[in-house]
Amino acid sequence: MIKSMTGYGKAETQIETGKICVEIRTLNSKNADINIKTQLLPKDREMDIRRKLAEKLQRGTIDFFMTYEPNAADNAKEINASLAMNYYRQISGLSDMIHAEFPSHGASDTTAVLTAILRFPDVLETRKQDIINEENWPAVESCIMEAIDRVNEFRSREGAVLYNDVTAKVSEILSYVDEVETFENERVGAIREKILSRFEELKLEADQSRLEQEMIYYIEKLDINEEKVRLRQHCHYFMETIDTDPLPGKKLGFIAQEMGREINTTGSKANHTGIQKIVVRMKDNLEKIKEQSLNIL
């Protein structure tokens, strides 16, 4: 069964300091355009992850996100003690300069000064550590692979919808080819009648033998049997490809182009209102097939 290039997958894992969340979103593209949108992934692991994404997801615009939610204890900020003491000494020295009483014994006054110092820039700082390391990498890598698997599951579900939609439209085009044939006899008769009426209007006496030859030549120029045969072949090839090729997206696009050529030629040769209306409906279905094929992996 075919897959869509549109997909989404999410997975989470718990490491010693918090929770890692991996999200992958994909859209259609001619190649594998991989965007790593996170600073958490170690640089020495990035190439390996890119390779796995390209290998498992094949094609499409692939956006890779990774977020980190620390545990409450690990989220606590640390006091830069040396900086805090430096501020305390400066405040003490400033109080001596202006002959103000500086709290040295009163617990509540000292606490008030320290509380004020803690609000100063860079006194409280977040712990700096490598979130992803050698010890927790196996769990993180497993989480990434789980997210990739979920993208593929999403793509398979979307692919089933695409398959039903596209194949239904190809079947419609085949039914329209059959419908064109119902106008064939009427169309040839109408062409013959049109030519004869022109002779009558011009009051010309035609050589019947020569007239028949010219009429046959003219009708053959407008013959669409070859176009109908080729269009049917292209439609059957489209169905065969979508059923048997594991990654048919690009090939289906090429087949749709060939279908378009035969439909356009049929329209240019039609010379019949009924057939031209059918050609318009064929083109409408074909445009939808082309749009959907762009999203097939």
Fold and architecture overview:
The chain is of the alpha+beta class and 297 residues long. Helix content is 62%, strand content 14%. The chain has helices spanning 43-57, 81-97, 107-118, 137-181, 184-202, 208-221, 225-244, 249-270, 273-293; strands at 7-15, 18-27, 32-37, 60-70, 77-79, 124-126. The strands form 2 sheets. It has a 4-stranded mixed beta sheet with strand order 1-2-4-3. Strands 5-6 form a two-stranded antiparallel ribbon. The radius of gyration is 37 Å and the shape is elongated. The mean pLDDT is 85. InterPro entries: YicC-like_C, YicC-like_N, YicC/YloC-like. Residues 181-296 form the Endoribonuclease YicC-like C-terminal domain. Belongs to the YicC/YloC family.
What is the mean pLDDT?
85
Helix content: 55-70%
Content of β-strand: 5-15%
Global structural class: alpha+beta
Instruction: Provide a count of the helices.
Output: 9
How large, in whole angstroms, is the Cα Rg?
A: 37 Å
Number of strands: 6
Largest sheet: 4 strands, mixed
Give the strand order, joined by hyphens, for the main sheet.
Answer: 1-2-4-3
* N-to-C span: 11 Å
The helix/strand series, from N terminus to C terminus, equals: EEEHEEHHEHHHHHH
Shape, per Cα inertia axes:
elongated
> Stretches where pLDDT falls below 50 for ≥5 residues?
none
Helices and strands in order:
Blueprint: E1 7-15, E2 18-27, E3 32-37, H1 43-57, E4 60-70, E5 77-79, H2 81-97, H3 107-118, E6 124-126, H4 137-181, H5 184-202, H6 208-221, H7 225-244, H8 249-270, H9 273-293
Parallel strand pairs: 3-4
Antiparallel strand pairs: 1-2, 2-4, 5-6
Helix pairs in contact: 1-4, 4-7, 4-9, 7-8, 8-9
